[in-house]
Design brief:
The termini are far apart. The radius of gyration is 20 Å and the shape is globular. By secondary structure, it is mainly beta. The chain is built from 1 helix and 11 strands, in the order αβββββββββββ. It has one domain: Sandwich (Immunoglobulin-like), CATH 2.60.40. The longest helix is centred in the N-terminal third of the chain and has 19 residues. The chain binds copper (II) ion. The site of copper (II) ion has 6 residues, from loops.
Length: 141
Amino acid sequence: MRGRLLLIAVAIALVSAACTSGAVQPTGPSTVPAGAIAVDLSEWHVVVPRSTLQTGSLTFVVRNTGSIAHDLTILKTDLPADQLPQESGKAREDGKVAGTTSLNPGQSAQLQVTLPPGNYVFICNEVGHYALGMHTAVKVG
Ligand SMILES: [Cu+2]
């Protein structure tokens, strides 16, 4: 009887561990897996390796290589990258398709997104960063 109770306790512990392991957290500095696209954020740049990407499911590895917090926000828009409307020091996020949380220096996050063909602007939307130049145009398709 005692052995059986112990087994049940172990089973419960294993199930709890399995349930918590799926959480997505920003990670430390990371290498970019094959097929993924690195997006580097720093003061005051958003750097994507190619300005034209293939449509479909894309994996971005977003790395904060700067010395203050940044994020990546992806907007689908035909406006030029430097002419998005702004409110309270941030770009308006019309057409937002994906984004990361705020990443501290040295942190990175993976973002898996399916992007239909079109024009996109990749920005950092921490207050003031868009106006300081953290935007880049990306064409998909
Ligand atoms: Cu920023």
